[in-house]
């Protein structure tokens, strides 16, 4: 172990650039000011009709140019905006980054207006034959390209001058953290000196809202949108669908030091665990989440007393919050009573594929700024979840290490351990 290698002899991975977009605004500055002030970005949906829906609120990003152009276009703009901020902060050329790109994004589908346009473009019956007729028309290829899973990463790689084949991944709500893990592993293996990891999701569509509603996963607290996301509260009733993005420039500490870059934090450890218990539900005994947390701590070379703050997955669903509490209590034992644990989702909602990346970015800023963002809307504590959730008001604190949890549908669990400086 040296200054530039960790306890397992691998290159230490530093973060030298961060970019963020959420419903709270564009860029680190606006997001951090809103987050630490306890402001909510949740609001009534105006993008599409919601009169007949049980849930009529979301954390949509309505202030970007492509917000009305469909999920694929918005996801691209979210990713491009966050990545541009991160690359610029890191001091690299915006169109010649020179490292691999890892993108976490939703499984993009054709938007309904595109599907209807295709349907109207032919005259065959039945409808499936009509769609195939139009699909074979060369003039419609651009529309289909926009819905191909890897097309967004391909465009981003061209935009920023990334090297190699860009990787697109979708591991449900853990996707953003998984993109960071892949970047870390590429540097640790010596395949790259730097990498660009992005989580972006602009898929708060009517169809997505209906699907999650059918799973009884969404909050229906429509009358007070800013109060709807209430992680760890007794009266929590579901998560709030949201959009956003975050990008991290990852770099070997040796490379960052050699070029005089400002180190914003260290990705100390990554842990993952998948299970096949259920397509949406968490395993009742919490064993996959427990294993993911323990794997992240082991990878970081830390014990149960080595974490100063936990950025919770904290979705505000009855089952997830209970499972996360049980998992953390199992791993940390009596230490859990001294660790502050808060959920950014209380303010920005659940950004799905982007959540792990956004929360990693906020975790790094927490250490750098010495301020823990609160869990807002904590007005009705759940006695079954005895945690210090930093209720309602930010807290100044010296934070050296953070555990950031991402627990996704389908048993996808990824945890990141970050440090202010090499541990």
UniProtKB/TrEMBL annotation:
Pathway: Lipid metabolism; fatty acid biosynthesis. Keywords: Acyltransferase, Transferase. GO terms for biological process: fatty acid biosynthetic process. The keyword Acyltransferase applies. The keyword Transferase applies. CDD domains: KAS_I_II. Coiled coil: none annotated. Its EC number is 2.3.1.41. Transmembrane segments: none annotated. GO terms for molecular function: 3-oxoacyl-[acyl-carrier-protein] synthase activity. It comes from the Bacteria. InterPro entries: Beta-ketoacyl_synthase (IPR000794), Ketoacyl_synth_AS (IPR018201), Ketoacyl_synth_C (IPR014031), Ketoacyl_synth_N (IPR014030), PKS_Beta-ketoAc_synthase_dom (IPR020841), Thiolase-like (IPR016039). One of its GO terms (cellular component) is cytosol. Residues 10-420 form the Ketosynthase family 3 (KS3) domain. It is an enzyme of class 2 (transferase). Belongs to the thiolase-like superfamily. Beta-ketoacyl-ACP synthases family. This is 3-oxoacyl-ACP synthase. It comes from Aquamicrobium defluvii. The lineage of its organism: Bacteria, Pseudomonadati, Pseudomonadota, Alphaproteobacteria, Hyphomicrobiales.
């Amino acid at each position: 172990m040296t200054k530039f290698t960790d306890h397992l002899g691998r290159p230490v991975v530093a973060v030298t650039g961060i970019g963020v977009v959420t419903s709270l605004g564009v860029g680190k500055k606006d997001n951090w000011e809103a987050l630490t002030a306890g402001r909510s970005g949740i609001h009534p949906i105006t993008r599409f009709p919601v009169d007949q829906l049980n849930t009529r609120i979301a954390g949509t990003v309505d202030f970007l140019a492509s917000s009305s152009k469909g999920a694929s276009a918005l996801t691209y703009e979210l990713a491009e905006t966050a990545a541009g901020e991160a690359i610029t902060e890191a001091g690299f050329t915006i169109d010649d980054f020179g490292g691999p790109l890892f993108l976490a994004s939703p499984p993009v589908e054709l938007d309904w207006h595109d599907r209807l346009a295709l349907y109207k473009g032919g005259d065959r019956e039945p409808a499936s034959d009509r769609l195939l007729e139009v699909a074979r028309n060369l003039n419609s290829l651009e529309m289909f390209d926009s819905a191909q899973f890897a097309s967004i990463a391909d465009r981003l790689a061209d935009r920023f001058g990334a090297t190699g084949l860009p990787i697109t991944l979708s591991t449900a709500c853990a996707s953003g953290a998984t993109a960071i893990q892949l970047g870390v592993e590429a540097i640790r293996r010596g395949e790259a000196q730097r990498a660009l990891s992005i989580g972006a999701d602009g898929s708060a569509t009517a169809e997505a809202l209906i699907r999650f509603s059918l799973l009884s996963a969404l909050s229906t607290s429509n009358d007070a949108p800013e109060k709807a996301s209430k992680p760890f509260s007794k009266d929590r009733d579901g998560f709030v669908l949201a959009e956003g993005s975050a990008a991290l420039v990852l770099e070997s500490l040796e490379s960052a030091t050699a070029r005089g870059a400002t180190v914003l934090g260290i990705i100390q450890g990554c842990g993952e665990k998948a299970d096949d218990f259920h397509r949406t539900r968490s395993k009742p005994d919490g064993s996959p989440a427990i294993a993911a947390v323990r794997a992240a701590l082991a990878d970081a070379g830390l014990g149960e007393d080595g974490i100063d703050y936990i950025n919770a997955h904290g979705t505000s669903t009855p089952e997830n919050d209970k499972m996360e509490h049980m998992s953390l209590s199992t791993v940390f034992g009596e230490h859990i009573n001294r660790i502050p644990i808060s959920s950014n989702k209380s303010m920005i909602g659940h950004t799905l594929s982007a959540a792990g990346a956004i929360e990693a970015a906020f975790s790094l800023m927490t250490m750098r700024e010495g301020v823990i963002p609160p869990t807002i809307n904590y007005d009705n504590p759940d006695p079954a979840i005895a945690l210090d959730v930093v209720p309602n008001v930010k807290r100044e604190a010296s934070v050296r290490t953070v555990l950031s949890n991402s627990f996704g549908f389908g048993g996808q669990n990824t945890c990141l351990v970050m440090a202010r400086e090499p541990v």
